[in-house]
């Protein structure tokens, strides 16, 4: 994969919280698979990643926000649906632990996803973060086992406690080695409502688990 700058486009500001600054130190290693591993999950193809710009280094392009899609006020998300890969999962609140690492969802529930509750609520202006396991301790598929199979244009729906549904459209799906995880790009602030969906990915070994993360980038395109 071509190298990518970790800074964002001038059209989106990067103003991380203290929690995010700490979180970046452990990004790419927060979701580690269990001891058993039966089948490799799908990995994103290069065509589903961001289109590189000309020059010695590539970076993501940020389309302009759609003024016809209003952002939503903060409200707790309850459920996440990804029709293309048959995901329909409840969302639980996730927090940072004492070391500043994001606590993953409980490892024994294969159909549970989580959202970083101290960050942006999905549908509000900023970068909302959701995560889930690719597989669980038994080796069975987790809620985001198929995440790497998503394509640009697929939709992600998030039901909220205010009875609104935030609909996001996938802009890109990428996989990063944890040693070169672009934290600023993944977690940086935004002037529009954006969503990240993250799970384990990349190479796998029994001794160390997955060596990277699959990251889905999506932007709010409809409100129900």
From TrEMBL:
> Which residues lie in Pro residues bias regions?
64-74
Renumbered to this chain, the signal peptide range is none
Task: List the InterPro entries.
Answer: Sortase, Sortase_dom-sf, Sortase_F
Q: Where are the transmembrane segments?
A: 20-38
Q: Which domain of life is it from?
A: Bacteria
Pfam families listed in its UniProt record: Sortase
One MF term from GO for this chain? hydrolase activity
Keywords of the record: Hydrolase, Membrane, Transmembrane, Transmembrane helix
Q: Where is this region: Disordered?
A: 46-74
Q: Which NCBIfam families match?
A: class_F_sortase
Name of the protein this chain belongs to = Peptidase C60
Question: What species is this protein from?
Answer: Streptomyces griseoruber
């Amino acid at each position: 994969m071509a190298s990518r700058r970790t800074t964002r486009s001038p059209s989106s500001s990067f103003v991380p919280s203290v929690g995010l600054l700490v979180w970046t130190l452990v990004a790419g290693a927060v979701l580690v698979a269990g001891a058993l591993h039966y089948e490799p999950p799908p990995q994103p193809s290069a065509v589903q990643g961001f289109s590189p710009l000309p020059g010695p280094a590539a970076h993501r392009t940020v389309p302009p926000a759609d003024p016809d899609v209003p952002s939503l006020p903060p409200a707790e998300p309850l459920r996440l649906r990804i029709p293309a890969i048959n995901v329909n999962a409840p969302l639980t609140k996730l927090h940072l632990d004492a070391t500043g690492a994001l606590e993953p969802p409980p490892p024994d529930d294969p159909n549970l996803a989580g959202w970083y509750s101290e960050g942006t609520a999905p549908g509000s202006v900023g970068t909302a973060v959701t995560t889930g396991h690719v597989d669980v301790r038994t080796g069975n598929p987790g809620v985001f086992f198929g995440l790497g199979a998503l394509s640009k244009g697929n939709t992600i729906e998030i039901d909220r406690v205010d009875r609104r549904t935030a609909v996001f459209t996938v802009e890109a799906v990428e996989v990063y080695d944890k040693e070169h995880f672009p934290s600023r790009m993944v977690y940086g602030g935004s002037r529009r409502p954006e969503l990240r969906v993250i799970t384990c990915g990349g190479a796998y070994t029994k001794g160390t688990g997955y060596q990277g993360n699959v990251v889905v980038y999506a932007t709010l395109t409809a409100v129900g």
